[in-house]
C-alpha cells in the first residue's frame, strides 16, 4: 500500500479517478430517482389517456348514464409485463356505473377534465391509480362521471430499471474512456520523467557533467537544479581529493627516486669496499638485501603509477581525441620491446600472430600503451615457467580485436569476473602473488570501458593458459 501512494502515476489516478467515481455514484443516485419519475410520468400519461377515452364514451340515454368502453382503452396498456388493469366509473356522488367496486371511490375534490394520481394496493399488489372527472356532453352541469383506472407497477418498474441500466452503461463507458484517457495522459505526462531517468541512468559511471536545463520540463527543474548543484559540490570535493592524491603521489615518487639513488650509491660503494673472501660474502649478502629493497621500491613505484592512472581515468569525463588515429600494431611493438628483457629473464617467448596495421583507434596512445602493457606484463608475471605469449591484432565482423594468448596457468572460470576488480589476486603461487598488485587487469578494464570496448577472458583452444580478447566497435 505504501508503494502505491509513493507512485506518482497512482496518485494521479486516485486524484482524478476517485472524485470522478464519487460524482458518478452521486449522479447514478440522481439518475435512479429521475428514472423513477420518468417511468411514473409515462404510466400516468397512459392512465390518463385510457381514462379520458372511457369517460368520453359515457352519455345520458332516457335519463340513465350509459357507457360503451372501446377496446382502445385497454390496448393502450399492452406490454410484455402483463400488468393487471382495474377500472371503475362512478357518478360524482359515488354511485358505480361500470367496472369493479374493488377500487374505492375517490373522495377528494376533483376539477373537471383534470386528473389526480395516487398509489394504492389492490389484491395485495401495489397499483398506481388515476381519477379523472368528465362532464357528460349531453347532460347538465351536474352530470359528471369520475373514471378511476388502476394499473400494477410491473411495467413501470421494468421501464425504470431499463432507464437506470442505460444510465449505468453510459457511466461505465464514460469511466472506461476516463481510465483510458488517464492511462494515456499519465504515460504522456510522465514520459519526460522516464526519459530524464533513462538519460541519468545511461550516463557513464563517474561522470560529473551537469544536466542541460534547456529541454527539462518545468516540473523537473527544481530536481535538476538540485542535482546540478550537488554535482558542482561533488566535483569540487573530488578535485580537492585529486589534488591531494597528485601531490601525495609526487611526494612518494620523489621519495622512492631518492631511495633508488641511495640504493645505487650503496651498491656502488659496497662493490669498492669489499675485497677479501669474508668481504665478498658480506658483499653478496648486502647485494641480495639491496636487490630485495630495490625490487620492493620498484613495486611500490609501479603501484603508485597504477593508482594515478586509475584516478585519472575515474576523473576524466571524456577521453581527449587525438589529432590522428593511433595504430594499435605500433603500440604492441613498443610494449614488446619494453618487456623483452623481462621475458628473456624468465625464458618466455614473446611473439605475434599477425599485426594488422590498418587497425586504428581514435584514442590517446598512452592509454592504449597502458592497456597493452598491463595485459602482456600480467601474462609474463604469472607465467610460472618457460612459455609463450602471442599477440595479434585483427579485424573480425564489425569489430577491431586485440588478442593476447599465453600457455601459463590461466585463470579459473569462476575467478574471471573477479580478477578485474581492484587489488583482487588469486592466491595460487606465492611468488607471483606477492609480486602482483592486483591492479593490472582493473586498469585494463577501466581503459576498455572508457573507449566503449569490451574485455573478454576465456580459455584458448589449446585448453591451457588464458586468452584475453579486447574488442572495439569499428568506427
From TrEMBL:
Enzyme Commission identifier(s): 2.7.13.3
Gene Ontology CC terms, in alphabetical order: plasma membrane
Domain Histidine kinase: 247-475
Keywords, sorted A to Z: Kinase, Membrane, Phosphoprotein, Transferase, Transmembrane, Transmembrane helix
Keyword Iron-sulfur tagged: no
Annotated transmembrane regions: 12-30
Broadest EC class assigned to this enzyme: transferase
Top-level taxon of the source organism: Bacteria
CDD domains the record matches: HATPase, HisKA
A GO term for molecular function: phosphorelay sensor kinase activity
Reaction catalyzed: ATP + protein L-histidine = ADP + protein N-phospho-L-histidine
Subcellular location: Membrane
Protein name: histidine kinase
Organism: Sapientia aquatica
Amino acid at each position: 500500500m505504501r508503494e502505491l501512494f509513493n507512485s506518482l502515476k497512482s496518485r494521479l489516478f486516485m486524484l482524478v479517478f476517485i472524485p470522478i467515481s464519487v460524482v458518478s455514484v452521486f449522479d447514478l443516485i440522481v439518475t435512479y430517482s429521475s428514472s423513477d419519475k420518468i417511468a411514473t410520468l409515462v404510466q400516468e400519461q397512459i392512465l390518463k389517456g385510457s381514462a379520458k377515452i372511457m369517460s368520453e364514451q359515457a352519455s345520458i340515454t332516457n335519463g340513465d348514464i350509459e357507457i360503451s368502453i372501446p377496446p382502445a382503452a385497454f390496448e393502450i396498456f399492452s406490454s410484455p409485463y402483463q400488468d393487471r388493469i382495474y377500472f371503475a366509473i362512478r357518478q360524482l356522488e359515488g354511485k358505480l356505473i361500470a367496472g369493479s367496486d374493488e377500487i374505492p371511490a375517490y373522495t377528494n375534490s376533483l376539477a373537471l377534465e383534470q386528473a389526480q394520481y395516487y398509489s394504492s394496493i389492490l389484491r395485495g399488489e401495489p397499483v398506481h391509480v388515476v381519477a379523472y372527472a368528465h362532464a357528460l356532453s349531453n347532460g347538465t352541469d351536474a352530470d359528471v362521471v369520475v373514471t378511476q383506472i388502476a394499473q400494477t407497477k410491473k411495467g413501470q418498474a421494468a421501464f425504470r430499471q431499463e432507464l437506470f441500466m442505460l444510465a449505468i452503461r453510459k457511466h461505465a463507458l464514460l469511466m472506461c474512456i476516463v481510465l483510458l484517457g488517464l492511462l494515456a495522459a499519465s504515460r504522456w505526462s510522465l514520459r519526460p520523467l522516464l526519459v530524464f531517468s533513462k538519460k541519468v541512468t545511461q550516463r557513464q559511471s563517474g561522470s560529473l557533467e551537469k544536466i542541460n536545463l534547456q529541454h527539462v520540463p518545468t516540473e523537473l527543474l527544481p530536481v535538476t537544479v538540485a542535482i546540478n548543484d550537488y554535482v558542482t559540490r561533488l566535483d569540487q570535493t573530488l578535485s580537492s581529493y585529486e589534488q591531494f592524491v597528485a601531490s601525495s603521489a609526487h611526494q612518494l615518487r620523489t621519495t622512492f627516486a631518492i631511495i633508488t639513488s641511495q640504493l645505487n650509491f650503496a651498491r656502488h660503494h659496497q662493490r669498492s669496499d669489499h675485497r677479501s673472501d669474508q668481504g665478498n660474502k658480506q658483499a653478496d649478502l648486502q647485494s641480495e638485501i639491496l636487490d630485495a629493497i630495490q625490487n620492493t621500491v620498484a613495486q611500490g613505484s609501479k603501484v603508485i603509477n597504477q593508482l594515478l592512472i586509475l584516478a585519472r581515468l575515474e576523473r576524466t569525463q571524456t577521453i581527449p581525441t587525438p589529432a590522428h588515429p593511433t595504430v594499435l600494431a605500433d603500440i604492441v611493438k613498443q610494449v614488446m620491446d619494453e618487456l623483452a628483457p623481462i621475458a628473456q629473464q624468465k625464458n618466455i617467448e614473446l611473439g605475434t600472430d599477425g599485426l594488422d596495421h590498418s587497425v586504428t583507434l581514435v584514442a590517446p596512445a598512452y592509454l592504449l600503451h597502458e592497456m597493452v602493457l598491463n595485459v602482456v606484463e600480467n601474462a609474463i608475471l604469472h607465467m610460472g615457467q618457460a612459455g609463450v605469449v602471442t599477440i595479434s591484432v585483427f579485424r573480425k565482423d564489425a569489430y577491431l580485436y586485440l588478442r593476447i594468448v599465453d600457455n601459463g596457468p590461466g585463470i579459473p572460470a569462476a575467478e574471471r569476473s573477479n580478477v578485474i576488480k581492484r587489488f583482487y589476486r588469486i592466491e595460487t603461487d606465492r611468488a607471483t602473488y606477492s609480486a602482483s598488485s592486483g591492479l593490472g587487469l582493473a586498469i585494463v578494464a577501466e581503459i576498455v570501458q572508457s573507449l566503449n570496448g569490451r574485455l573478454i577472458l576465456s580459455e584458448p583452444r589449446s585448453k591451457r593458459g588464458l586468452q584475453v580478447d579486447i574488442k572495439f566497435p569499428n568506427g
